[in-house]
Amino acid sequence: MKLTIFAAGLVALGVTAAIAQSDVVAQRQGLMKEMGAQTRPIGAMMRGQEPFDLAKVQASLKVLADNPVKFVALFPENSKDAPKTEALPAVWANKAKFDSYGTKMSQDAQTAMASIKDEASFKTEMPKVLQNCGTCHNEFRKKSS
Questions:
Q1: Which run of H or E residues covers position 102?
Q2: Are 135 and 101 in contact (CB under 8 A)?
Q3: Where is the secretion signal located (predicted)?
Q4: What is the C-alpha separation between 69 and 132, in angstroms, rounded?
Q5: Residue 10 lies in a domain
Q6: What CATH number corresponds to the domain at position 104?
Q7: Which residues participate in the annotated binding site for heme c?
Q8: How much is the pTM?
């Protein structure tokens, strides 16, 4: 009887750990999707395909300032081997560097929020924020084929 209860407890613990891992992956994917959705209109404004809209820019920068800080906290050691993730093992091998990229992205977005007042300042400051995306993806995300 005790063995059955012990075995059931182990199974429940394993299921709970698997759910926790998938929730972390889903949370970080949700934050990344939100950031991607915010960068699309920004990119269109940068290319002149949409008119400059300061309110949209500021709203996007708020997300780009907030999400990286939340995002880097969603890589616990037990999520390293989680399914359906594009995170490379380098995230956990170089966690301090990965975390610093999140901090830099957040700080650059906050600086841009304070600096961008018109289209000219937008076109000067926004590339500094967006280059953080490529830098981090190149080092810590699987390349899609």
A1: helix 95-115
A2: yes
A3: 1-20
A4: 13
A5: no
A6: 1.20.120.10
A7: 133, 136-137
A8: 0.81
Q: What are phi and psi of 116, to 5 degrees?
A: -80, 115
Other residues' Cβ atoms within 10 Å of the Cβ of residue 114: 9
Q: Average pLDDT over the chain, rounded to whole?
A: 89
pLDDT category of residue 144 using cuts at 50, 70 and 90: confident
| In a domain? residue 4 | no
The pLDDT tens digits for 36-89 are 999 999 999 999 999 999 999 999 999 999 999 999 999 999 999 888 899 999
Binding residues: 133, 136-137
Three-state secondary structure string covering 44-108: HHHCCCCCCCHHHHHHHHHHHHHHHHHHHCCCCHHHCCCCCCCECCHHHHCHHHHHHHHHHHHHH
Domain that holds residue 136: 15-140
What is the number of domains present in the chain?
1
Instruction: Kindly state the tokens that stand for 88.
Output: 């490379």
